[in-house]
Write a structure and sequence with these properties.
- With 419 residues, the chain is α+β, with helices and mostly antiparallel strands.
- Strands 2-3-8-5-7-6 form a six-stranded mixed beta barrel.
- It starts with a helix and ends with a helix.
Length: 419
């Protein structure tokens, strides 16, 4: 719309003259070329910096969410009681009747001791179901070594998948044998632990320390036997939904129809601190970087004003030839628009070049213990380019309006007198 407005018949002459001024083809225009280049660079740095910041914020959020969703279900049901709940199969069948629920997986979580031939470590053992129809729990890029499988290996031992921090603490590798000890609960009369052996089939690395350093995963049937659970019992029921936009609606319906002793929580409730931290990053970074665009836009006031002062004689001649004030005003508004458009184009190209370089060469490393990833992720969104371009162009045109109005009010007699 802006381009059609600027290229209408009433703008043909201002457009021609503004484009001539913008290209600075006249002699003695080296100074104007310099300040114009600085103005374009200011807009480019502001717009490009904001687009880069937004793409990093989006990439950071997506990476964190992916890691959290890999470990945490959308909705989880557990019990107030210290022990497991029986008949998890009945609860599972009931939950699957809810609209929007795609899966309900019983799991068992308990503390165990894991030992290699030389080292031992206390970990959280999580028993999960594994079948061909279920989606993979972890994306391929999180599997550091081996495969996410609990199938028996050539050692005839069931498989176990461990976190990368656990693997480091135990100096364990795929194919290595682990011994797990489960200590009895209850009245304490029986002190002999249950013992089971597994073979490491995979090592998972999420970058989130509390996950990688504590969790190991095994088949639900093996974990039930090791921890002394019944064949239909569980400690948790992990629920996945088909649309996370409806998560709270589904959660409220499940919570209202499941009573004591069940506790129902969403992934957001269980990971409030991490979600709040990510949202804070998304909210503050664009605000801080956006100030750069505001500064660059209002720098145009000085830039266009200097162009006006350098072209006072031209303005006087144009007015003496009968050009109305609106024509003079449009010339300098268009010049501000050309500067904004050039800066925006360079800023968009700059952000896309950065995206490619960061994706291919990981220019920005991060301390994984603080940010849960080793390099800054980048995820550009088309809506960001549209929004940043619109806001930047609007601010630049508003900033160009004041010097354009000043140029339109210059008296032709005084301007010509300076020739």
């Amino acid at each position: 719309m802006i381009f059609s407005w600027f290229s209408s018949s009433s703008y043909k002459f201002p457009w021609f003259l503004a484009s001539r001024y913008f290209t600075n083809k006249r002699k003695g225009s080296r100074f104007l070329s310099f300040i114009q280049t600085m103005a374009i660079a200011g807009v480019a740095v502001g717009a490009g910096g904001l687009l880069i910041a937004l793409s990093i914020a989006h990439g950071f959020s997506s990476a964190i969410y992916e890691k959290i969703y890999a470990f945490s279900p959308d909705i989880e049901i557990r019990t107030y009681l210290p022990d497991q709940f029986e008949r998890a199969d009945s609860l599972r069948s009931f939950i699957l009747t809810f609209d929007g629920v795609t899966s309900a997986e019983p799991t068992i979580t308990g503390r165990v001791m894991v030992q290699t031939s030389r080292l031992a470590e206390g970990v959280i053992l999580k028993g999960v179901e594994q079948n061909d129809t279920a989606p993979p729990r972890f994306p391929p890029e999180m599997i550091r070594s081996g495969h996410y499988t609990f199938e028996r290996t050539e050692t005839e031992l069931p498989g176990i998948v461990i976190g990368s921090g656990v693997a480091t603490s135990l100096d364990a590798q795929t194919g290595q044998r682990l011994t797990l000890f489960s200590f009895p609960r209850g009245d304490g009369k029986r002190q002999t632990p249950e013992i089971a052996q597994f073979t490491v089939t995979g090592i998972v690395h999420t970058g989130i320390e509390r996950f990688d350093d504590e969790f190991v995963f095994a088949d639900l049937r093996q974990v039930r036997q090791l921890l002394g659970f019944g064949p239909r019992s569980a400690t948790n029921l992990e629920i996945r939904v088909d649309d996370r936009d409806r998560l709270m609606e589904i959660f409220q319906e499940i919570r209202d129809r499941t009573s004591y002793p069940y506790i129902t929580e969403t992934v957001y409730m269980r990971n409030q601190n991490m979600f709040a931290w990510v949202e804070l990053q998304e909210a503050t970074v664009p605000l801080i970087i956006g100030v750069m665009i505001l500064i660059a836009a209002f720098n145009l006031i000085g830039t266009i004003l200097m162009m006006v002062l350098e072209r006072v004689r031209d303005i006087g001649i144009l007015k003496a030839m009968g050009s109305p004030n609106r024509t003079i005003e449009r010339i300098f508004l268009l010049e501000g628009f050309f500067i904004a458009a050039s800066g925006l184009l360079l800023g968009c190209v700059l952000s896309l070049v950065f995206y490619w370089l960061q994706t291919e060469y990981a220019l920005i490393p991060l301390p994984e213990e603080n940010y849960y990833m080793s390099t800054a992720p980048v995820e550009p969104h088309l809506t960001d380019f549209v929004l940043v371009s619109f806001v930047t162009a609007t601010l630049c045109l508003l900033a160009s309006w004041l010097p354009a109005r000043y140029a339109a009010k210059i008296q032709p007699v005084r301007a010509i007198a300076r020739i």
